[in-house]
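Dear colleague,

Thank you for sharing your sequence with our group. We've completed the structure prediction you requested, and as agreed, I am returning the results in plain text so they can be pasted directly into your records. Please verify that the sequence below matches your submission; if there's any discrepancy, let me know and we will rerun it promptly.
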Amino acid sequence: MASRKRLTPEESRLSALEAARALLIETGPQAVTLKAVSARIGRTHANLLHHFGSASGLQKALAEHLARTVCQTIVEAVHASRAGLGSPREVVDLAFDAFDREGAGALTSWMLLTGNEDALDPIIAIIHDLIDELAPTEPPEHIAERRLHRETLTLVLLALGDALIGGALAKSLGLPRDAARERAAAMLEASFAEHLPG
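Please find the predicted structure tokens below.
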């Protein structure tokens, strides 16, 4: 019988977060329990308690993991777009997909409904760091940075809302399914065009 590979604490934690993310995408946020994750990775419930403390601790860690992964991807897409290697639509698609296909919208709603609002703190902190990284190098009081904050807020709210009710709302209004994405892409294209060197 083959022995199970011994994982470092960080590898064990990452394995649990990836399993939780898969459960979130496959089944929804209600499936992200310590029992389900431990069964998926072949670890004990006690092992996960050691890493996360509780189910809400697991959800909070998952929210942070998703936010960090998604925000890093968005940062790379924005830099590529600014360098002429990508487009604002790619940035929009990444943000919208994170909340829809990657489950961040469902997880956010679930945490709010179950009274685990503080689990959103890591997402907010990481988005704030993303804004700081993408903001122009001008002084903080410069209007361009405030515009970037507003655009980021708009993009996140559009992506979250679209993940939750976008399909039904677009259908009831007789709009194409990707109408919100198109609107967000137009906003970013206008902003990027205004800030191109030239």
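Summary note from our side: The chain has nine helices and no strands.

Kind regards,
the structure core
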